[in-house]
Amino acid sequence: MNIPVDWSVVGPAVIVALGALVALLVDAFYSRRTWLGSGLPASIALVWAGIELFRLHDDIVPFTFALSLVILVGTLVVVVASNVMNFENAMPPGEYHFLLLAAAGGALMMVAARDLVTLIVALELLSLPSIALVGLRQGDQRAIKSAWTFFLASVVSTAITLMGVSLLYGVAGTLTYDGLNAGLSSTDLPDGVVAVAVILTIIGLLFKLGAVPFHVWIPDTYTGAPVMVAGFLSSVSKAASLGAVYTLLVVALPAAFDTWTTILAVVAAVTMTVGNLGALRQTNAISMLAWSSIAQAGFLIAPVAVVTRFGPKAAVQYLAVYVLANLVAFAALAVVLRLRGSTDYSELKGLARTDPPTGVPLVMAALTLAGFPPAVIGLVTKYVVIRPVIEAGETWLAVVMAVNVMLGLAYYLKFVVVLVDRPAIDDPYRSPSPPVSIRISKAAVLIGTAGLVALSAWPDLLLAHLP
Amino acid sequence: MRRWLYVVLTAALAVAVAVWAIPHFDEPGWFGYVGQSVPGIVPPLPSLSPDLFLFPVSAQIVLLAVGIGLLVQIYSTAYLGHHPRYRSYALIIILFLVAMIAVVGTTNLWVVLVGWEVMGLCSYLLIGHEWQTPEARAGAAKAFLITRIADLGLVLAILVIGETYGTYDMIGASAAMSDDGPQSSTVIGLLVLVAVVGKSAQFPLHTWLPDAMPGPTPITALIHAATMVAAGVYLAARLFQFYADSAVVLTAMAVIAGITMLMGAVFAFVQTDLKRALAWSTVSQLALMFAAISAGHPAAGTDHLLAHGVFKALLFLGCGCLMHAVGSSALSAMGGLRRSMPATFWSMTVGFAALAGVVPTAGFFTKDSVLEALLHADRELPGGVGVALFAVALLTSLITAAYAARLWILAFLVRAPDERRAVTHDAPHAMTGPIVVLAVATLALSIGQPFHLGIGLLSTAIAAAGIAAVFVAWRNGRSLDLDAPWLTAELGLDRPYARWIPATLRSSAQAVVDVDRDGVDAYSYGSAFVAHRVSRVLALVQSGNVQRYATVIAAGVIVVTAAAVIWA
Amino acid sequence: MIAAALTIPFTVGLGLLFLRKLVSGRAAAGLGAASMAVSLVLLALVWEGKDTISGEVDTEWIEPLGARLHLGATAISWPFLLMTAFIGLLCCVWLIAGDTAPALVGLVLIISASSLGVFASLDFLLFFVFFELALIPMWFVISWWGDPHDSAGRTRAATRFLLFTVTGSALLLVGIVLVARDSGSLQFTEIDGGPLVAAVLIVLGFAVKTPLVPLHTWLPDAHSKAPTVGSVLLAAVFLKLGTYGLIISSGLLSASFADVAPYVAGAGVVGIIWSALACYAQDDLKRLIAYSSIGHMGFVALAISTMSPIGIAAAVFGSVAHGLVTGLLFFLSGSLKDRFGTASMRAIGRGLYARTPWLAVAFVFAAVASLGLPGLAGFWGELLSLRAAYEVGVLDKPYAWTALGLAVLGVALTTAYFVRAIRLLAQGEPVAQEADRDLAVRESVVSVALVVSILVLGLAPGLIVGLYDSGSTVTYEGTYTAVTP
């Protein structure tokens, strides 16, 4: 098997991987074990990888470029916002950053993969560090249980994908996307086998995306994991999976279009509905965001399921806004958790009034996710993501999406109302001067929010430039 | 004396109208085709441009309205002057007069409509003037509802006229008609008929008028005798040309008029309340006017309208004087008032004579014109109907004379009831003045009226017979109260309006509210319920039990794969 | 100028929201009234004639989607714009009181400005953004400042309102995407038809807002639980977003809208009868008025469904007149609720003519206007609707005439329930209560302004109707083209 590797193209991933090592090393030799110690090299690596990515702009497919950018920016936000865990003795910063950047490297590989072996390797590179991250907090039984759940789900999904991959290899005799495309185009293949092979391969990726019925691990994992890890899983990990699914489907499996388009459309519809329904009753912000991320996965899959000229753009644009809003929300919640010890709604009551720098971004993020003005960008990306579905003539799916917009608003609104409500009279929290590390996290939150506001005012910033 | 301010205002209005209207008396032509107005192909959008214009008849009616309005205002200063709400009362009368002018003095159908309904509103407000009493509230609501529902006929009629003739201008429409000949006449006629039947309290929409009697008596005189209810007749005559060639409409109108005039007269005869009796008498007299119109002689109808307006206003105002004296409108409370209230007595005698059709009152002449018209009714109406209508009209004349005599006797001639303690005396000058004026007018209006010898003799004989019968009965000491319970109960004709329709409305309204809450809204509550139920089920799956997750995933894989295989 | 008319109240509103601690309620309301007045004047001055788009602004916004910041006043939207600014102004005047929360004024301004944005938009996506923008502020208005005696109920009502509307608007969004796909443009000036599905979705979306039966069940709750200004804005402005949307979609999607039109007409007339009967059994005055709104909107829907020039004129007139008349009714019932703590007619008691004479007179005036007395604003909208139905338009003749008959029956029933309400409230043996107070100055100012405007529109319907000559069709090609028969 000859796997051609153009090292210049995987440059960003390599840089990120190097950054991971440096972060680990710095931490090992830097005795005070602060988050800046390993976080700084990690951030530098991410920025450098970004520069490298822009240098390679012309050599990379726009879709891959955009996703890589989303992954790098997302990871950077996670790294910066993770400062909130400074001096939290249970969390080792060196390992944290190493695992985070390793996973990011895997994510970058995943969207760049053009053959199934690379895909599987990248998938594992993303998954295993993620599992470790979830269970990283020392002595936290819940985190370990979450990691265990996540691990099991990951293993199952990888196994299923591997089964699919081997079937595909058996059918087409090759593992490169181009080869698969050619191999599957010949007509004398047994339909059923191809269908099973294709579906099994996709299922592994749908796991990562959190599509129903492969979503069951998400609520437990997100609520058990450190908040920023959950943020990472819900954003970077999803971005990578989405990119991988799309590339796989469009580059390698277009011949099996009939097999996967309807399935994926149905999966998208069910996913968004189940996710929204699951979120309806949540009274903890993290659980709510966990379920909402399932629902959002449905919105992400929809434009991919129907292949049209708008599809990839729509998915990436929607993803970018989703990632930004979600990370803002998770980062703000991480701050809240650190300061107040809980993210239950009862704890968040009136946050936008008592602590505007975290409360207002949460409001903005929730409205963006709901797709509701004043977060115009959320609404515009809803439009963007419905457009390819309509273009493909799948009006029913568009209507399901519309109903889900309503369902989503039901719980996002509840969340927003909690945030802007009049606060409880004796609010225990009054922090005159939070430590620097928390200020850094808050800065990340505010910058992200500023991004959302700017995008709402000029949606063109994103829509005209992303892929 | 602030209350004279409103009299002055009304007088100013009356003078202005007189200056405007009197020169139009002598113009030739009735509601004929006058002037030139070019209708469009499609009717224009509605506007309320005043388009003032008076025909001779309109001039007379508008003058009648403001004249009686002025007299009523004067009368009210004494009758109602100390009422705490005198101001609103007097102002609404002025608004009413303006509305009446709008109905009569314009050629723009929309202005007519506005005036028409504002009159209805004023009638509603004034009947309900004593709104703390349940009778006034109920009567007001009933009057407003029935007339307004009927008014919808006029709205639709105007729409049809506009669509048919391409204009909402009456003159323009008649110009268009004279080119192509009338069209849609049956539809227009029936719709107009609905409107005027409601406004003029004709069968079967007649029950509101007797119930409107809790209103102040001057208002009854002005609105519910002389002007507003008569405006139905005016409008039917005014729009006559638009349905003149429709036998259906004329026959329907004739039948309604026949039923109503007889019914009104009979009911008037059996009443024990003077005011209510006069109300039924109004219903009956209005029917007589409609009969003339249906016989193809709208002019006879409007002539009788004028005369009736004067003498019925006289009678109601006189009734007000009696009520002022004895404190009740029940006939049993009256009697023996001839000597103590001479001015009222003599004036009302003239009024009753006009009602009964006694020479030489105006009522005699105009009623004869109507009868004369009915005699030749078979030219317009299908044979039998015309003859029957004439016969009914004669019978009605007989009963009318009889009940006029009965009321007159019971009010003035019979012995005063024993329980009356206070010494009665005539009303203040502000009240007797107007009725004397009206009595003079009742006599004066007979000057120059057409006279038909044969009919005149016949009707005089009939009137004499009616009056004589009552007199003989009274002289013989027999009671003048007819013992016919089903007649005093007015044949139960009010039952649909008083009971059935409100009951249906209430129960269906309650049903709608229930269905709206429990039926229509079910989809929203249902979906919310389902959503929460599903949400709970999803939460159950999320037990933290890894085996259960594996099961779900395995099932998912199987289902998705199977679906793929089946679809592929 | 249009941009300024939107921006000024919007900015002031945002400012009041964030600086709510720094201003008194009275000052906030005064400031709000001033900004709405400026907006009203600007909107009045912007008019350039019915044949063009007045004050057109057209700049880039979202290039890849073809969405533009495209604003302007057309013959259709101008009356809506003026009415909205006027009602917004009166709401602010109403709030000039000691116990007003500055944030409420801010929300009122934002809602008014967003609604102005809807009416001024000439781009479908921009329209939609404004359409949604007003919803969440309205949720807060209802849920936080609503019925002080029922805090759970007002939140439930607010959420129901929001979820119903959002369901509708999400469908609308799908419809917009469909239209944009077929026409390749989001500009009202360029959209040329759309598929039937789009028409169905768009009409559904607006039908929730209008509301048409059976999508109306959110309305009585929301209107009755909202604070006075909230009810007024809901009835006078929000429902108009629905009717305005139906009017423009009938113009934009003419071919496919014609297929949906019979259903719109049917829902409209059923709504007229249904709501009238429901009104007849109400005890709560605000619920009664809320249901009566459904009936009035039924007339508007019937008019729109004929898709004739008369129908458009009827719909615009009916919408504006309803805004003024029902606005007045809600202001006055709000006055009653402020005084008596409830809008239950039984609890308020009879004989208001004697207890609070001017309030009672104003209420009776508003009721009479609402039941469609000729010569007042409420009449012409209904009349033109009837005429539009009589002329049939795109409907079948038997169908249209049946609808006409039912609508006429509805007028009769409307009279019945308003007469009942007058009888229960204004008339009757007065039993004085402690809370009897006649209109305060601010209430009088608002009432007089509305009474005068109702009279003016009633006596000079040409002010609005004149924008639409008969024998012309209303399109978005410069909004207005005359057709020679």
Textual characterization of the structure:
The complex is a heterotrimer of chains A (467), B (568) and C (485). Chain A is mostly helical. Chain A has one domain. Chain A has helices at 11-29, 35-55, 62-81, 93-112, 116-134, 141-172, 177-185, 191-209, 217-224, 227-252, 257-280, 285-305, 311-340, 345-348, 351-354, 356-370, 376-391, 395-420, 436-457, 460-463. In chain A, helix 4 (93-112) packs parallel to helix 10 and helix 12 (285-305) packs antiparallel against helix 13. By secondary structure, chain B is an all-alpha fold. Chain B has helices at 3-21, 56-79, 86-104, 109-127, 134-165, 170-180, 185-199, 208-211, 217-226, 228-238, 240-243, 247-270, 274-294, 298-326, 337-340, 342-356, 362-375, 383-413, 429-444, 453-475, 485-488, 495-520, 522-541, 546-567. Chain B starts with a helix and ends with a helix. The relative contact order of chain B is 0.08. Chain C has one domain (2-483). In chain C, the strands form two sheets. Chain C has a two-stranded antiparallel sheet. A two-stranded antiparallel ribbon of chain C has the order 3-4. In chain C, helix 2 (25-45) runs antiparallel to helix 3 and helix 3 packs antiparallel against helix 10 (228-252). Chain C is globular, with a radius of gyration of 21 Å. Mean pLDDT of chain C is 88; it is low at 476-485. The chains are: A mainly alpha (467), B mainly alpha (568), C mainly alpha (485). Chains in contact: A-B, A-C, B-C. At the A-C interface, helix 17 and helix 18 of A face strand 1, helix 5, helix 6 and helix 7 of C.
